[in-house]
Amino acid sequence: MAADEKNAEEIFKEFKEQSITQFFRKNSQMLGYSGKVRSLTTVIHEYVANSLDACEEAGVFPDISVEVKEISESRHHVTVTDNGPGIPQKHIGKALASILSGTKFHRYLQQRGQQGIGAGGCTLFSAITTGKPIHARSGTGKGSSFECDIAIDIKTNKPLITNMKTVLEDFRGTSVSGEFGDTKYERSDHGVFEYIKRTALSNPHASIRLVEPDGKETVFPRSVNEMPKRPKQTKPHPLGISARDLLDFAHIADSKNVSSFLMESFSRVSAAKIDELKAVADGVNFDKRPRELTWPDAEKVVEAFGKIKWIAPETDSLSVIGAKQMETAMLNIINPQFISVTERKPKIFKGGIPFVVEAGIAYGGDAGKKTEEGTKGTIMRFANKVPLLFDGSVCAITEAVNQIQWKRYGIRDFGDEPISVFVNISSVYIPYNGIGKQAVSQEAEIIEELKLGIMECARKLQIHINKQRSMHVRESRYKTIMRYIGQLSADLSEITGEEPVKIEESLKKIVENKYDMGNDTADEEESDADTGLLEESD
Ligand SMILES: Nc1ncnc2c1ncn2[C@@H]1O[C@H](COP(=O)(O)OP(=O)(O)O)[C@@H](O)[C@H]1O
Ligand SMILES: [Mg+2]
After folding, report:
1. Taking 50 as the threshold, does the pLDDT of residue 526 lie above it?
2. Which ligand is nearest to the CA of 122?
3. Which residues does 77 contact at the CB level (< 8 Å), separation at least 6?
4. Is ligand 1 within 6 A of the CB of residue 438?
5. Is there an atom of ligand 1 within 6 Å of 136 CB?
6. pLDDT tens-place string over residues 262-273
7. 160 in Cβ contact with 72 (< 8 Å)
8. pLDDT digits (tens, 9 = 90+) for 185-238
C-alpha cells in the first residue's frame, strides 16, 4: 500500500447524511431557480399560488398584492400579501421555512401546491443568494396578528424564527417578503408581469395588484363575482396508482388488513373486487396489516389492478375555470375582436386519472404578441390554473397546438397572426415534465384531448375569419362598381332620355342588393356550410 492510500475505515470516517435542504441548496435549479428572470418569476409564483390556494380553501375572494423593488440590478425585494385565512403562529416556521411540509401533500385534491417545497424553497433561495431571512406577517382578522423573521437551518431543514412581535392592528391574511439575489426584472414572456397577467386570466375571481420596480402599478380587477367550484377530495382510482404510491398509502394507513385498506383508500374497490384481485395477485396475503406490505407485494397488486375491469373514476374532483369565466377574463384582459372558448367533458388518462381540458382562442384586437416585426401567435399554457411560462418546447400543450393544421381554420401561419390560444388542463395528478412543473408531459391521450379542445374553438374562429374575408371581398367589389355608376348613368340617360339621377338611384339599388351591404346573413349561410368540411384527418 502506497503511503497516501486509505482503507475503508478511514474513508468512511467522512460518511455523513445530508438534509433535503442541503440537497436543494446545491440543486436549486430543480426548484425553478435557474436564470435570473426565471428565479424571480419562481419566487412570485410560489407565493401567489399559495395565496390563491389558501383563499380558495377558506372560501374568500382573493385580493392579492405583489410588489417588486429593485435593490440592485440583480437583487430584488418581493412582497406578496393576501387576504386569506392566515397561518397560525405555531405553524408559520414550518409552513414558510421547511422543505416538504405543508397542509396539502397528504390529500388527493386538485390544488396548485402539493409537495410542500414552494415557500421553503423561496426562503432557501433567499438565504443562498443574500444570507437574509424572510419576513412574514400573518393574522386571522381577530386581533391576533404577528410578524417575525424566518430563516431556514440548512443542516436540519428546521425553521429559525427571530424577532417575533405581536401586532395590535387587525389583519387578516398573510404577507411574506424577502430579498432575493441572482434575479432580474424584465417585462418579457418569462417575466413577472406576464406571469401575473396570465394568473389574472386563469383566476378571474381574484383581484391582483402588481407594483413593478419602476413604481408602475397595474391592477387586474376581479372580473367574475363567483367563486370557482371547490374541488372534491376523492380517493385515487386503482388504475392511476404505481407500486410506490401503493406502498406510501399502505404505510400510513390505519386499516385492519390489506383488503380493508384497498377498499378504504381507493375508489371503486368493493368486496367483490377484492375477491377478483385475490384470484390474480398470486402469493399476496390480503389479511396482513397494510404496513407489512412489501415492494414485491405492491408490484403484484398493481399488476392485478391492471388485469381486472373497473368502473371509470369519478370526475367531480376537478375544479375548472369555467367557459363563461374564461371568456369574461379574456375579453377584459386581451380585448380581442373575436373569442371562442370551450370546457370539455372530463377524460381519463392511464385508465385511472381524470383530467379536464379548457381551451379558448382570441383573435384580432390585442390578441397575439406585439413585436417589432408585427403580431405573432402565442400559446398561453396553464395547469390547474397556474401559468406555465417555461419549457414550452417539451410541453404537451405546445405539441397539440403544433399538430393542428391551422390553414384549415383560416390561419395561414400561426406564428404570424394576431392569435392567442389559451389552454388549461386540470387534474389531481398533472404529469409534469420534471420537478420545475413548467411543462405537461406528452402523453398521447392528453395531446389528443388537447387537440380536440383547441380544434373546437378553431372551427368557430374559421367561421369568423370566412365572414370577415368575404365581407372584405364584397366591399371592394361594391366600391369598384360604385365608382362607374356616375358615368354609366350619364351615358344611359343620353340613350334613354331618362333623368340621370333616377337612373343612378335604381342602379345603386341593384348593386346594393347584389352585394348585400350592411347585412351579412348571406355569409353566415356560406360559413355554416363550410364547417362541415373541417374534420382533422391526420
Ligand atoms: N399565503 C398563505 N396562506 C395560508 N397558508 C399558507 C400560505 N402560504 C403557505 N401556506 C401554508 O404553508 C404550506 C407550505 O407551503 P409550500 O411550501 O408552498 O407547499 P405547498 O403549497 O406545496 O403545500 C402550505 O401547505 C400551507 O399550509
Ligand atoms: Mg406552494
Report:
1. no
2. 1
3. 68, 69, 70, 71, 177, 178, 179, 180
4. no
5. no
6. 999 999 999 999
7. no
8. 999 999 999 999 999 999 999 999 999 999 999 999 999 999 988 888 888 889
DSSP assignment of 478-509 equals HHHHHHHHHHHHHHHHHHH---HHHHHHHHHH
* Closest CA relative to residue 209, chosen from 388, 80, 380: 80
For residue 42 and ligand 1, the question of a CB distance below 6 A is answered with: no
CB-ligand 1 contact for 114 (6 Å cutoff): yes
For residue 281, the domain's CATH number is 1.10.8
The residue segments making up the domain with residue 293 are 238-307
Residues 266 and 392 in one domain: no
How far apart are alpha carbons 237 and 260 in whole angstroms?
Answer: 15
Span 388-414, pLDDT tens digits: 999 999 999 999 999 999 999 999 999
Question: Which amino acid is it at 386?
Answer: V
How many structural domains compose the chain?
4
- How many angstroms separate the Cα of 139 from the Cα of each of 83, 119, 197, 273? 9, 18, 27, 48
Indicate whether residue 139 lines ligand 1 (CB < 6 A). Answer: no
Pocket test for ligand 1, best of 50, 80, 126, 385 (most atoms within 8 A of CB): 50
- Residues near ligand 2 ion, CB 5 Å cutoff: 50, 113, 118
pLDDT tens figures, 502-512:
999 998 898 88
75 and 179 part of one domain: yes
Domain boundary among 193, 220, 247: 220
Residue 333 is placed in which grid cell? 384582459
Q: Which residues of 440-450 are buried (b: 16+ CB within 10 A; e: fewer)?
A: bebeeebbebb
Q: pLDDT-based confidence at 470, cuts 50/70/90?
A: confident
Report the distance separating Cα 76 and Cα 215, nearest Å. 13
**Residue 15: inside a domain:** no
